[in-house]
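User: Before I run my own analysis I want an independent prediction to cross-check against. Here's the chain; please return only the structure tokens and, at the end, one sentence I can use as a sanity check.
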Amino acid sequence: MTINAMTRLKILLVEDDPDRRARIEDLISSITDTFELEVIVSYEEVLKEIGLNNHDAYLVSKEFSDNRGLEIIWEISGQGCRGPALVLANDDDPELESEAVNLGAMIYLVRDQLSSRFLERMIRHAIDRKRYEDNIRDNQEDLIKRMMDLQDSSERFEAQSVEYVQMAEDLAIAQGELEAALADVTQSKQELETLNQEKDRFFSIIAHDLKSPFTSLLGYTGMIAMAADKMTPEKIVESAVNINESANRLFALLENLLEWARLQMDQIPSEPVILEVHELVGKTVDVLGPVGADKNVRVESKVNADVHAFADTHMVDTVIRNLTSNAIKFTAAEGTVTIDGRNQDGVCEISVSDTGVGMTPEQVDKLFSIGDKNSTKGTGGESGTGLGLLLCKDLLEKCNGSMVVQSKPGKGST
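Assistant: Structure tokens:
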């Protein structure tokens, strides 16, 4: 998210020293007319303004009201204000900076290092970063709510299991009925274990796999925001490439994560139509061919124009795209990824083959085990979560299809 340069931003300056206040006012006034500066010199008035939450950013003097500036930072953070807090201090003190950040400050500024342009850039960067982090927090809260819904379902299944066992003991039902009830309990227990494994995998992805791309993304953007005027064009291009790669990985992860979550809650309807398989595969080759080319891996289609299927377009497209992307990931340079298809005995068979690293029988057996984290690094160091194959399996089952895996170490996979 970026801020329109013509938007007037309301800035609250918390400073009771006349000289220091005058200097900040001079810096702000010499920037542009996009900042609307309000000054507060009373501790009680500051608390009142924080409660109103009417400002886009807060410039807080560390020395305000006999060194109570960090208390103001704590209040801004605790009140959940929409604007970020920036600390103004006389000394470049790492320990003081760390304390201020821990209390909720977004940026620590040393007065002697300030210029009009630098102050404007830091204020805009802090506002952008605060809004970006708030959006991330909202998305994470939505995912956590979904996890809590899964937890509620798990508890309901557990309660049903207890009721079935109690009914069997109280009614002393016949042996056949008792065995049927116990079978229901066993099935409920298995469903409960599956739900718990899904919940644990979701929390693991949120806690680690989802956080890592954001950390990289924020690191590169923060570096550019802080020192773009000192970076060489080559360094800026390198950082931009890294930001783009992190954003693409993050988007792919979120796309698979949300699609799988919708599948588990049965929110994706299947709408089967007659598919021109060669056209669908051709689109995948067009999109992922350049990705393979970056690794010197050839992606090709051998699907004839007369191959058809009766299935949901989006679901089949997602499966082919995920399997092809996975094949590229585990194929080294000079390798080949081939997509083929045929109609036989009233069904459509589509295969995605590669000449990559392959898998052992043990690895194949664990591919669709949700309780195991099976993701490994690709030949180019690519990372993953192991969620893509689970998504493909569930989507195919939704289309009344199935998946078979054939693989040998060093020979590739199909």
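Sanity check: Confidence is low (pLDDT under 50) at residues 1-5.
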